[in-house]
Write a structure and sequence with these properties.
The structure holds two protein chains of two kinds. Chain A is built from no helices and ten strands. Chain A is mostly beta strands. Chain A is globular. Chain B has no helices and eleven strands. The chains are: A mainly beta, B mainly beta. At the A-B interface, strand 4, strand 8 and strand 9 of A face strand 4 and strand 10 of B.
Amino acid sequence: DAKTTQPNSMESNEEEPVHLPCNHSTISGTDYIHWYRQLPSQGPEYVIHGLTSNVNNRMASLAIAEDRKSSTLILHRATLRDAAVYYCTGRVGNTPLVFGKGTRLSVIA
Amino acid sequence: GAGVSQSPSNKVTEKGKDVELRCDPISGHTALYWYRQSLGQGLEFLIYFQGNSAPDKSGLPSDRFSAERTGGSVSTLTIQRTQQEDSAVYLCASSLAPSYTGELFFGEGSRLTVL
């Protein structure tokens, strides 16, 4: 099972880097770790996903622990538009992505 | 645009009435997913389709909930005899490949309010 644990909320100053942690100690060896975010009054949007190696894209970086029991989503320079709920998620058995309550990120100008 | 389209965006209904929520996925996406998000909560998985078949119906909360997909495209989520606890935002998503290997694209959701 890819049951995930995330802090309920985090705060960051604008233009500062943000590290959003996620524990997924029961993830299977072949399941990807996915991150989505949900802006107010919108559906979730994909951020990034990875399996074992660290991943980078235009939105963020994903650092995956060597034992794959945890990962960290890194926003290199937080902006006000990055204020959202961030979900770390994975497959649970044969059930598609299971989302918890996520981390609510506040960005302070 | 060519994103996932859901309708209606808002629906207010009386307790006991039936409602239908529609999802139009991105063209060519074979997988389609329904989630529910109650106020202040995370996303609750309901059902997913691969083509027209639903391999996993375990997330449907009760037998009042059903979903179908026809022609490998549009899907309808039906809630019969609605209850107040059914009030939530119902989100649809689609993907090219099964979700655990690729990206899900979500619609804006259908907000259901049961009075």
